[in-house]
Design brief:
This protein is mainly alpha-helical and 208 residues long. The protein has helices at 25-35, 39-55, 63-74, 133-139, 154-166, 175-185, 189-206; strands at residues 83-84, 90-91. Strands 1-2 form a two-stranded antiparallel ribbon. Helix 1 (25-35) crosses helix 2 (39-55), helix 1 crosses helix 7 (189-206) and helix 2 packs parallel to helix 5. The longest helix has 18 residues, at 189-206. It starts with 24 loop residues before the first helix and ends with a helix.
């Protein structure tokens, strides 16, 4: 990987334990400062890379890809005045615009009765990584082992995004496959290009 990530087991005990991603505090402090990302977010992205390296090593996911998605989707959990807490949870909840078919947005009628996105008419993307409710329900992972898979928690959202990107035996070290994965996340070419450019930038700056 070339990222200097220390090894951390992918599973940690129990509810109310410290965030597993806290094991990356020193690494994340160094890299967060280099690339201008909040440390709590860098911890989440790095931890997701480590977990996938152990559970799906053929994917070759790098934390910089997750960081780029986090930047483009919500500026690392800071969209609309939100702030990531020390526990990784964004407050207030980050909600996208209604997916009502307007302004170039998809048309997706409500699928969760507003349970996740507080909208009973249309779906909205949720949290730092902007999952739509149906995708979240299919893929959600409780990365920080607090007993809840929360799309507004950067730990859970980053690891869920990692698993989503790696599904179908994807190998993200292959250029075409990487693009396919990003476009599966959001099938808009300019979006994918922005993620690519941001990931490249983070990669360069983290190794400086």
């Amino acid at each position: 990987m070339g990222t200097g990530l220390p090894g951390v087991p992918p599973t940690q005990p129990a509810v109310n334990a410290a965030r597993p991603a806290d094991a990356l505090a020193a690494w994340a402090q160094q890299n967060g400062t280099r690339v201008g990302i909040p440390v709590v977010a860098v911890q989440a992205y790095g931890y997701a890379e480590l977990v996938l390296a152990q559970t799906n090593p053929g994917c070759h996911l790098e934390w910089t890809t997750l960081a780029a998605i986090g930047k483009v989707e919500s500026s690392h959990g800071s969209f609309n005045g939100a702030v990531l807490g020390a526990d990784g949870v964004a407050q207030p909840t980050i909600l996208g615009l209604p997916l009502d078919g307007q302004g170039g947005r998809q048309l997706i009628a409500d699928t969760d009765r507003g349970a996740l996105d507080q909208d009973t008419t249309f779906d909205r993307a949720i949290g730092p990584m902007q999952f739509i409710p149906s995708t979240w329900k299919e893929t959600a992972i409780d990365a920080d082992r607090d007993g809840v898979a929360n799309p507004n928690d950067i730990d859970d959202a980053a690891l869920t995004a990692a698993v989503y990107l790696c599904k179908g035996s994807r190998d993200l070290s292959k250029t075409d496959t990487w693009w396919d994965a990003i476009l599966s996340y959001n099938a808009v070419r300019p979006y994918a290009q922005k993620v690519f450019t941001t990931a490249q930038d983070y990669g360069r700056r983290s190794k400086a």
